[in-house]
Amino acid sequence: MNIQWYPGHMTKAKRAMEESIKLIDLIIELVDARAPLSSRNPDIDSLGRGKARIVLLNKADMADERYNDAWAAYFKGQGCHVVKVNARSGAGLKQISAVVQEACKEKIERDRKRGILNRPVRAMVAGIPNVGKSTFINSFAGKACAKTGNKPGVTKGNQWIRLNKSLELLDTPGILWPKFEDKTAGMKLAFIGSINDNILNTEELAAQLILFLAQDYPGRLEERYGISFEDLDIKDISGGYVILEKIAKARGCLLKGSAYDTAKAAVLLLDDFRSCRLGRITLEFPPDKKED
Ligand code: G4P
């Protein structure tokens, strides 16, 4: 998680993905349900050309349920197979095997025509850092975690986990690089803790999060910190700082003298958000699906 992503890292990650992709039939792509587009790397489309794909809306337990369904519908509309999951608790994982069969039915049919029966589908898990790849592999593979051992043609280090007779999983996930070019996407990734906080300073990051919450979830801030938006017009980042100071006041974050410790309040807010103490929140919405 503390990787500093720079072009060298991205090139390395891309090369590793290209190598792994040669070995598999199916990519299980994890995205964060709170920001499904920002947490997705568009290069997966070219990297995964010709491979079957499943999108997992992971951390669905942390995202607004109304939008989980809207996002699932959106990805289905784009021709993807989608499952909402909570890799930590295991919710949703049972559906995956059936979806794998569906996503790979062309390959299975091709094999059958060639007289190859019961060759397992080989899959790789991929996603940006912190999206839940390792947690997913551990939960999904569970006790089936017995590895099948190295096989000819498999790069040393890559092991296959046999999940059942029709599915094998590469034990090493494919790491995709986060989207930095798009500033808003980068900010959302910082909110959810998927890239280093120091993309912005913590107070600015918190003020930006407040701007977002004031627009889409104002009640959550009112409820948790007892602040009222009634006489406030939060239009830009300066409004975010005003609220941050109110949070500092509400939480007794004080510096020596009478100044408020907004740096401490920023850490507190980001922590409350990331631990779902502000409730389940989705940071971006499928086109035309945003509810008022
Ligand atoms: P990665 O391999 O893609 O980098 O991600 P990893 O599995 O390490 O998961 C990153 C963090 O996200 C972990 O929390 C993990 O428990 C959490 N996580 C993964 N999937 C889910 C999910 O569906 N729901 C929720 N709520 N959390 C999830 P951590 O705090 O870094 O570690 P830990 O304290 O859980 O060990």
What average pLDDT do the residues reach?
Answer: 89
Unique bound compounds: guanosine-5',3'-tetraphosphate
Specify the biggest β-sheet: 7 strands, mixed
**Overall helicity:** 40-55%
Give the topology string: H per helix, E per strand.
Answer: HEHEHEHHEHEEEHHHHH
Q: Extract low-pLDDT stretches.
A: 149-155
Shape: elongated
Taking all Cα atoms into account, the compactness measure Rg is: 22 Å
Q: Into which percentage range does the β-strand content fall?
A: 5-15%
Q: Provide the structure class.
A: alpha/beta
Number of strands: 7
Termini gap: 35 Å
Oligomer: single chain
List the topology elements.
Elements: H1 7-21, E1 26-32, H2 44-47, E2 52-58, H3 65-77, E3 81-84, H4 96-103, H5 105-113, E4 121-127, H6 133-141, E5 160-164, E6 167-170, E7 174-175, H7 183-191, H8 202-216, H9 218-225, H10 237-250, H11 262-274
Parallel strand pairs: 1-2, 1-4, 2-3, 4-6, 4-7
Antiparallel strand pairs: 5-6
Helix pairs in contact: 7-8, 8-9, 8-10, 8-11, 10-11
The structure holds guanosine-5',3'-tetraphosphate.
